[in-house]
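User: Can you fold this complex?
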Amino acid sequence: MSPFDGSSETVLSLEIPPRAEFVAVARLVVSTAAKSRRELADDRVADLTLALSEACTNAIEAHDAKDEADRVTVRVDEDDERLVVTVEDRGPGFDLMELPTHPAVTDPDRLNFERGLGIPIIRNLVDEVTFTSDDGGTKVSMVLHCPPSVAGMGPDDLLDLDDVDLDAAWDDAGLDDEVIP
Amino acid sequence: MDLGIEVDESRPPHVVVEVRGEVDIATAPKLREKLVELASQGAQQVVVDLDAVEFLDSTGLGVLIGGMKRLRGLDGDLTLVCTSPRILKVFEITGLNRAFTIYETVDAAVAG
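Assistant: Here's the predicted assembly.
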């Protein structure tokens, strides 16, 4: 399902096992796609990479309660004005209204919140974010407003995955044969 | 992605923990284990040097908060060394730059 109404294009779709080692793989692939497809300053790419990491971390933690054979889907879509990164898990879902509110940063109780910082970080770093969650899973769509790259890539060009050192990323992730989809 | 951790105990009472690489859900447990180990061995003043950290997300923040609380509970503290704008931004947007004491150099952190 596209987050766009009209002429959007899916740049890439990646399925990862719900395991911690694969978050770094998702960061590498999505940051490479963002840099190659859009006009984005390095710090904006870093913002997106951090937001993605938070969304993937939440997705993987959501799967702790469910079957590890499930996959987390990371998708990158774009149109003329926006880049949209969507992370979708098949965990048990959560109620956004029941998220704890963090105490003010000057409140000593703030330090009791070692977890749960991910969603505030995402909200801070991207231009728009939507969360949808039910008992079939959670979907996080993060939007950056940015023009397409002017480096000669037309709208029909797909990301050249040759530019990504996927082998090294998979090796770093400790991928073994049994988890290859 | 491996996380490099080196411990320098040559500047008592401070223990300097130099972290290298990316701190995320996969690697943060290694840092947590090291901080817990140091606290259990009696370290009180721990300086975590983040200058060689290329990436840190909320999982890493959580470990640092946990370490700081543990050490403050033992009348010690966990302070940070960080000059990377990208890493400092994570502390700033969460407001945690006000909870941690962040120095620009290890020498400054050890001088306290």
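Helices of chain A lie at 23-37, 42-62, 118-125, 166-172. The interface with chain B takes residues 20-21, 23-24, 27, 43, 46, 49-50, 53-54, 57, 60-61, 104-106, 110-111, 113-115, 117-118, 120-121, 124-125, 172-173 of chain A (CB under 8 Å).
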